[in-house]
DNA sequence: AAACACAAGTTGGCTTACTAACTATTGATT
DNA sequence: AATCAATAGTTAGTAAGCCAACTTGTGTTT
């Protein structure tokens, strides 16, 4: 290989790794009896940390687009985990809040997710984390022009 | 941060990076007038390098599941880029081949993809590639038990 | 005040991912 | 030879991603 970027490998490796992570997360959720998809969890996590957040902000933070957020929230509302409250200042907006069931879900699922994060990182070092962040950010940046 | 794995950041960073890559690929495809999704490209690429490959093998190589491969191939067949030929030895199997249009597509798209790979890797070094592979493989491995 | 562009969310269409259930064929077992 | 388990692929349902078009509400301009 004359230059790493000549290989298909790096796109593929990122894709494979994130798929694996998602699979493991979902499988653990199912085993633990959580009736929740990974992306539903991601929204709950952000709402828990930003009570009253708007859908647009939620979309930005999660790098999901607006229609996707709308639809995932629809599901979470149907499950009674989350509610939309009309915003006072701007009637185009909703403020999103956890309902009691949602708060409970957050508290129950969080430790499981933390454990999975630990497992995934394993024996990798602080220095590796530096490399990791630098390389990922660099790829992202190289595409942002 | 007491330990890197305590942070949500690494799942999120991988997710964000692969999304970005996919977006850029798709946008370039569209700009270049290729009527092709990224995943359709991935299958064409593998068929081009493995004429006569079976659907199952295709699924393994791409880490897609069987139904997904079936459906993407359906689309490629409809576009006349690819054909299924009944296997001689095993009548459950198909052998997948590029049609002339598909071969042309492969040759046209490949240089564009190579250029995008180069752009994404940018000034990262051979050594960085080593770190990258080691870290990704390690995460994957940590989840394979 | 009326017209305008812009912003927040929603809806619809198409694509891909995952699971489960299904058909058809093959290969092994007895 | 008949049965049975495993394999290749398909179909159906639900979830999520992307784009484009749309509705409603806001803010600015004139």
TrEMBL record, chains A, B:
Gene3D superfamilies: Winged helix-like DNA-binding domain superfamily/Winged helix DNA-binding domain
Native organism: Runella defluvii
Pfam families with a match to the protein in the record: MarR_2 (PF12802)
Source organism superkingdom: Bacteria
InterPro entries, alphabetized: HTH_MarR-typ, WH-like_DNA-bd_sf, WH_DNA-bd_sf
All copies of domain HTH marR-type, residue ranges: 7-141
Signal peptide, first to last residue: none
Keyword terms, alphabetized: DNA-binding, Transcription, Transcription regulation
Gene Ontology MF: a single term: DNA-binding transcription factor activity
Name of the protein this chain belongs to: DNA-binding MarR family transcriptional regulator
């Amino acid at each position: 290989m004359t230059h790493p970027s000549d290989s298909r490998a790096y796109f593929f490796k990122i894709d494979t790794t994130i798929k694996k992570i998602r699979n493991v997360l979902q499988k653990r959720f199912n085993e633990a009896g959580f009736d929740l998809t990974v992306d539903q969890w991601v929204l709950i996590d952000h709402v828990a940390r930003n009570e009253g957040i708007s859908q647009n902000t939620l979309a930005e933070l999660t790098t999901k687009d607006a229609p996707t957020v709308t639809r995932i929230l629809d599901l979470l509302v149907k499950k009674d985990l989350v509610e939309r409250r009309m915003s006072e200042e701007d009637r185009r907006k909703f403020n999103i809040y956890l309902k009691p069931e949602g708060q409970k879900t957050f508290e129950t699922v969080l430790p499981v997710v933390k454990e999975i994060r630990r497992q995934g990182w394993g024996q990798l070092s602080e220095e590796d984390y530096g490399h990791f962040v630098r390389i990922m950010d660099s790829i992202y940046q190289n595409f942002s022009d």
